[in-house]
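S.,

Sequence below, as promised.
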Amino acid sequence: MGKKYILQHDRPNCIGCGACAVVANKFWQMADDGKSDIIGGSPKPNGWQEMEIDEKDYEANHEAATSCPVEVIHLVEKDTKKKII
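The prediction came back faster than expected:
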């Protein structure tokens, strides 16, 4: 069993550039309001979105996070709660 991660999206501060949807279209899509969404993500009361991902999905989402010009995509190790990006 590999590591688990929490994929987080600070949606209120998303500028809708679409880079995440281009580099990781299995996990990210553009919404009608011009911002991105985590496909299957859970909305939080503060407007953020979260989803648990497996280790095999880490690289694609790390690339999405590093491609984001406003740094609103984060990865956190589930067990340790350590923020990676």
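The beta strands are 4-9, 28-30, 36-38, 42-43, 49-54, 73-77.

Coffee later?
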